[in-house]
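Item description
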Amino acid sequence: MSPDADVDAAQESDSSNDAGAANDAGPPRRDAEPFDAAPLPVVCASPACATSLTTTSVNGSTQDGFCALLRDGTVACWGGNRSGELGRGAAAGVDPSGTPERVVGLTDIVAIDHTCALDKDGAMWCWGYGPFLNRESPRYERRANSTEVTPLKLPIPPATKMALGPFAACAVVAEGVLCWGANYYGQLSATAPVYSEAPLEPSLVALPPGAPIRDLFIGNASFVVREDGTTVSWGDNPPLGRVSPVTPDHVPEPMDLSNISYIDVAGANACAVAGGIPYCWGVVTGKRPGMSQPANKSLDRALPEPVVVPEPVLRIATTAAVENHVTVSAPRWCACGASGAVYCWGNNVYGQVGDGTKDYAFEAVKVPLPGPAAQVKTTVDTTCALLTSGDVYCWGADTYGQLGAGTLKQGRRTPQKVLLP
C-alpha cells in the first residue's frame, strides 16, 4: 500500500468551507477584454498519447472515472463502471477498473464529452447511463435515460458539437442546436412537466440570433457559447448564471458576461473563463445530513464571481456538492493557466487538490506536474490533467481506480502518471 493510500479512507464533511479565493476578488468584470483563451496544443511525445480528456459522470458521483481520446481516434476509460461507463461490454460486468482500456467498437473519434463521442462523420455514440434515445429500452416510455454497456449510435443528424447532461443531451447540427432526453430541469420544453424523467424526442432549441456557435455545455442548466464570446443559458437556477424570475427557466437568454471562451458545469455548479479571468457560481455547500436546508446558504452564488488565480486562465473545471447519508463533499475547482500550470482549490479530503496535503485549500494552489497542461478535469474525489505531451496525470482518491495506474484504493495526494494503452 502506498503511503498516501489513507486518502481513500477519509470520511469528513467540508460543507462549512467556502469557495476559497472567490469571495475577496471584487465585483465581476462584465466587459472582460479579448484574450486568446485557446487551450495549449498537445504534441504527442510517445505512442501512448491522449489528445482530449473528460470525466464519465455528468452530475458528480463518488463512483466516477475518466476517459481519454487517444491519438489513434479510439477512446480509453478507467474508474467506476456501475452503469457501464467504461464501455467494455456485458462480459466485463460492472466492476471498476484502474487500468485504462479502449471502449469497444469506437474508431475515428474526434471529440468526447463524458460517455459520448463524435466520430469524423458527425455520428454521436454514447455508452454508460444517460439520455441515449434507446427506444427499445423496456423503460423508455417512462424514463429517458438508459444503461448501455457498449456504444450506441444515436439516431440524430450529423453533428459538429455535442454535450451530455444528467437528463438531457444536445448537439449542434446543420439546422441549429438539437436537444432531447427528459425535461427534468426545464431544458427541453416550456409545456412538458419539469422534474419528470419521461422522454422527449429531439427538437431544435429556439435560440436568439447571434454569431456561430463555438461550443455547448450541459449540467442542471444548458449553455451555448458563440464565437464572439456571448453566451445564452437556460434550465435550473443555479447554475443558470443570470437573473431570472423563474426556475427552471426554459427560455435561452444572454448571460451578463462577455468574451466567454469556455464553461464547465457540474450539477448546480458552473465556472466560466472570460477574457482570461475565471468566474464561478452555484451551490457551494450542499446539505448537511439531517437538515432540510443547505448548511450555509449564504455561501452559494447565483451569479458569476471572479476567482483569484495567479495568472490568466485558459480552462477551468468544477465539481458538484455531493451528499450521502454519512458525509457532504464540498466542491473543488481547478484551472489551467496560460503557462500550462494547474491550480486547484476547495475540498481536499482525499488529496484531490494535489498539494500533498489533505487540508482544505482556501486559495488556488499550484499542482506539482512534470510539464504544462492543456486540460484539467475534476470529479468529486479525483483530479486529472492532460499535459501538452499527451500524458495524463491524476491525483486524489483511487477507490474505483480513478488514478488509472492499474490499482484500486491506492490514493495519491500528488500527481501520478496514467497508464494509457
User: Anything to note?
Assistant: Confidence is low (pLDDT under 50) at residues 5-31, 286-295.
